[in-house]
Design brief:
Layout: H1 4-35, H2 40-66, H3 71-75, H4 79-99, H5 101-106, H6 108-119, H7 126-139, H8 143-154, E1 157-160, E2 163-166, H9 168-183
Length: 204
């Protein structure tokens, strides 16, 4: 059975983690409204890192205020409680970023739902969806330029004489993605892209 001290530690860790997470949601929403980067994923990573650093800085001040209290509030004054809470917060915030804002920003499924919703009760035919996707998602949102910008920032791709080439880092990620796709039987569509302006080699 858990002792009272352990119960207080667990309760305090969970509650402070959730408090940090709720504060992050508010700060991140303001961040996106005021100065949100077009690259949502990396903007989110920066926000998580900044919030983690901020909470780590504030934790000692909070611990001093809670010192001497009883129950789970008193447990919040312990270093291990704050360390656990902040570590759990960072994982939770990262999970939130990649599963909600990033999915909404990138997901074709989200776009299709939006297109059908805007069509109203009359609905929309398959051809209309395909045309809407090409005009709104691929061309209208400059999807290729946005994703290329991401990869240039991270150093996976470099531009040379108007052409884009994989770096050693990019080659590593490509090989890793290929191995993961084969291991877990994931669709190879994204790792076997159609050649763009490159003549295909004839196979004997």
């Amino acid at each position: 059975m858990m002792t009272r001290n352990r119960r207080d530690y667990a309760a305090a860790s969970i509650l402070f983690c959730m408090a940090y997470f709720l504060a992050f949601i508010i700060l991140y929403a303001l961040w996106r409204q005021i100065d949100g980067d077009v690259v949502v994923f990396y903007d989110g990573i920066k926000a998580v890192a900044a919030a983690t650093a901020l909470f780590a800085f504030l934790a000692p001040l909070l611990m001093r205020r809670l010192a001497g209290l009883r129950g789970w509030l008193g447990a919040g004054a312990r270093f291990e409680t704050q360390f656990t809470a902040i570590a759990c917060f960072a994982l939770l915030a990262y999970s939130f970023i990649v599963t909600i804002p990033v999915v909404i920003d990138r997901s074709i499924s989200v776009y299709i739902i939006s297109a059908v919703a805007q069509a109203g009760e009359d609905g929309i035919p398959l051809g209309g969806l395909e045309e809407s996707f090409l005009r709104g998602y691929v061309d209208g949102d400059e999807a290729v330029k946005k994703r290329l910008h991401e990869q240039l920032i991270t150093g996976n791709i470099v531009e040379k004489d108007g052409r884009y080439i994989l770096t050693a880092r990019g080659r590593f990620f490509y090989e890793a993605h290929t191995a993961i796709a084969e291991t877990f039987n994931v669709s190879r569509r994204n790792i076997r892209a159609v050649d763009a302006g490159v003549p295909r080699k004839e196979t004997p």
